[in-house]
């Protein structure tokens, strides 16, 4: 009773009456239908077949909502109390669809599957912990309804998105991931790892001072990251090229550029010059191997060609830094 009088306090599920449970189920179905509609609209331009799946799932949710409303009117009348998920303690929650925009195809499909499983598990657990026969029956019916939603989603997926179409959509998703994150990130990692070799090792061999070398490496890495990030973000808005958000590309490029330079800069926090330089050189080899692996894994560049390009370029810049530092 006290929780009914205190504003902002969530009610426990056990304290809800059958009328309130049914009202909660209605509002939940309404929310899920709206979320599926939003998913469909967000996917329609790039993945029309999957958008149809979510249109169908939204319609399924709407039909169940109407069935629940009919049952409510039969048992309790026309006045349906507004009870939402956030009003009930322990009830499953949904992440607002606007927080996950732009939509990732596989994550959206997985989220939809989780939505249905969460609802089914919750209703079954709630049914198991109640002793009232009518409430138990009602919760069990809701659990069955949610299970039917999952089966309906599978049927819609098989009908509207056959394997060929699904593979085509996954190829589009993979290409977008490569263009938005991998390509600019790889360019940044290469620039940060290789272009900073000369100033860092030139400073190291010219001064023999680890702290000075660290400051030179830190400034070179951060400066290169900012430059690469802004360059990537402003030179292509992604509308015509299909490379995705310029902000995401800029962040991927800038962050990876900075990381690439910091990798062989951080060892110079070690006061001993020989140990710091030896560790920095070892890290350079690790960075060059990582770049080669990424090129082979995501850009499908043959191992041999990728290794020659990266190692040869890195070696030349590295030697240039050592030569300049010994002048």
General description of the model:
There is one protein chain. This protein has 327 residues and is mainly alpha-helical. The protein folds into two domains: 2-161, Ferritin, core subunit, four-helix bundle (Ferritin); 174-325, no CATH class. Helix content is 76%, strand content 1%. The protein contains eleven helices and two strands. It has helices spanning 2-5, 18-43, 48-76, 105-128, 133-160, 163-195, 197-207, 210-235, 246-263, 273-298, 303-325, and strands at 11-12, 88-89. Helix 2 (18-43) runs parallel beside helix 5, helix 4 (105-128) runs antiparallel to helix 5 (133-160) and helix 8 (210-235) packs antiparallel against helix 9 (246-263). The chain is elongated and about 90 Å long.
Named CATH topology of the largest domain: Ferritin
Helix content, binned percent: over 70%
Spatial shape? elongated
The total count of strands amounts to: 2
The CATH class of the largest domain is: Mainly Alpha
Radius of gyration: 29 Å
> Helix and strand succession?
HEHHEHHHHHHHH
CATH architecture of the largest domain: Up-down Bundle
Distance between the termini: 84 Å
The residue ranges in which pLDDT falls below 50 over 5 or more consecutive positions are 1-7
